[in-house]
Design brief:
Chains A, B: This is Transcription regulator. Chains A, B: Keywords: DNA-binding, Transcription, Transcription regulation. Chains A, B: GO terms for molecular function: DNA binding; DNA-binding transcription factor activity. The structure is a homodimer. By secondary structure, chain A is α+β, with helices and mostly antiparallel strands. Chain A has two domains: about 1-65, Winged helix-like DNA-binding domain superfamily/Winged helix DNA-binding domain (Arc Repressor Mutant, subunit A); about 70-225, Chorismate lyase. Chain A is about 30% helix and about 35% strand. Chain A is built from eight helices and ten strands. Chain A has helices at about 1-15, 25-30, 35-50, 85, 105-110, 150-155, 155-165, 180-190, and strands spanning about 50-55, 60, 70-75, 90-100, 115-125, 130-140, 170-180, 195-205, 210-220, 225-230. Chain A is globular, with a radius of gyration of 20 Å. Residues about 235-238 of chain A have low confidence and may be disordered. Chains A and B meet through α3, β1, β7, β8 and β10 of A and α7, β7, β8 and β10 of B. Chain B binds a DNA duplex through α3.
Chain lengths: ~240, ~240
DNA sequence: TTTCATTTGTCCGTATGTATC
DNA sequence: CGATACATACGGACAAATGAA
């Protein structure tokens, strides 16, 4: 229930029903007809997504997530949700859809042994006709037995949820700067050596079983990856 | 109080008192002599740092965070804590320590008007004799009236905490790829055009007032910025 | 400066639901 | 199936910060 309330609050923020700050807990309690604790749990969720900052004695203030004109991807929304804002406008060209065996890197990150079977998907994604990102994804075949080409052209996470009831519970995120690798150059025909902002994610579901490892390289030189960190902590920070 | 319990649980994990999983909530309730709600809030904090995975009906399992060959800065630890691991080994060369007036960019992010007085600190930081990062920081003079050269050579946040009782409560983080700007080239004598992983942070204290805007450019081409994102969410993700 | 109502932060006890084993 | 363990929700109490009178 508090999930639904959280979703609704986020919706109100997006629709600018709430502009500068949220109504007080008392007002929200009244509005949603639930206890204060439930409201607070809902607000916790919204805060965790970096949309609010909380001020004791004052209220909840809405964060403006912008970097001037530069495009921003909010990673605090959690895996799968981060891209949703742009996801509907993205088109995907599937450059590879194949079974492979885990190498050292993949085995390390997926907590499996070398040689375990994986599905490899390489996609070039476009936004408004512009190259947006290139994404290498590896799925554990023990979890995701099969992926159709049609699914790979759309939202894979959606298909995985539909067919295997797997959705992302949490994720580890690594951000670095890289260039395209040989396979990516060959299949895209892009041969320049540009440094690309790169996001590597290990996605976990349910009991925190890693089921997916993906590396996304963004072509847009202006792109910003955003996330919010808060200090839950009272004190010191020494 | 639940902060202290969270800290203690983390300590027990680090000391391997708890190896595979945590004691049950009932046992922890008994051990710390607090209510179950308080235990759960403490555990929430530990989870948020990515140290635990929670399994309904089963228990809390300790995450084994795998190490990588590439150097990693863990930003999930929260603002101010992220750099602590390396901070003590960093030496800082202060390239600029001056009063400036806020420009458009700074005003936007610090939620102030153009022309407000700021302190600008430009530091070149080294790790084991190697260039590690270059950091531009702007402090609101209304909050931080003065910074000494000695403080700038050490930990500025520590000095700010000591002199003004200001510590970071939460932060907005933007990660992008940039190159050095003119002032940075001039003052460092570095004139190549390398793409650098760049972290822009707006730091808040008292949860509401932005007091610092800093941009850090990392020289290490292998560096990874890490953070953990969890889904608090039960369900769907549609 | 003090006072006071508002608002968020913390903690408690209890009850019920649901997943795991 | 029953026992255990985590998830959700309610209601109440007091503390602490804010902001306006």
């Amino acid at each position: 229930m508090y999930h639904d309330i959280a979703d609704d609050i986020i919706k109100q923020i997006n629709e600018q029903t709430y502009v500068d700050k949220l109504p007080s807990e008392a007002q929200l309690t009244d509005h949603y007809q639930v206890s204060r604790n439930t409201i607070r749990k809902a607000i916790d969720e919204v805060c965790q997504q970096g949309l609010l900052r909380r001020v004791k004695g004052s209220g909840y203030y809405i964060n403006q997530i912008t970097m001037h004109d530069a495009p921003v991807v909010n990673l605090s929304l959690g895996a799968g949700k981060a891209m949703r804002a742009v996801d509907s406008h993205l088109t995907s060209t599937v450059l590879a859809l194949e079974d492979v065996l885990a190498n050292q890197f993949q085995a390390n990150h997926l907590h499996i042994t070398i040689g375990e079977p994986l599905i490899h998907v390489l996609r070039l994604r476009q936004l408004n006709g512009q190259r947006y990102c290139i994404e290498d994804s590896y799925y554990l075949k023990t979890q995701v037995a099969q992926l159709s080409l049609a699914d790979a052209q759309q939202s894979i996470f959606h298909a995985v949820k539909r067919d295997y009831d797997i959705s992302v519970n949490n994720a580890e995120n690594y951000i670095s700067v890289t260039t395209l690798n040989d396979q990516q150059r060959q299949l895209t025909g892009i041969h320049d050596d540009h440094a690309l902002l790169t996001l590597t994610q290990i996605n976990y579901y349910g009991n925190n079983i890693a089921f997916n490892l993906s590396t996304t390289k963004f072509f847009n030189a202006d792109l910003n990856l955003y996330f919010h960190s808060s200090q839950t902590f009272g004190g010191d920070s020494k």
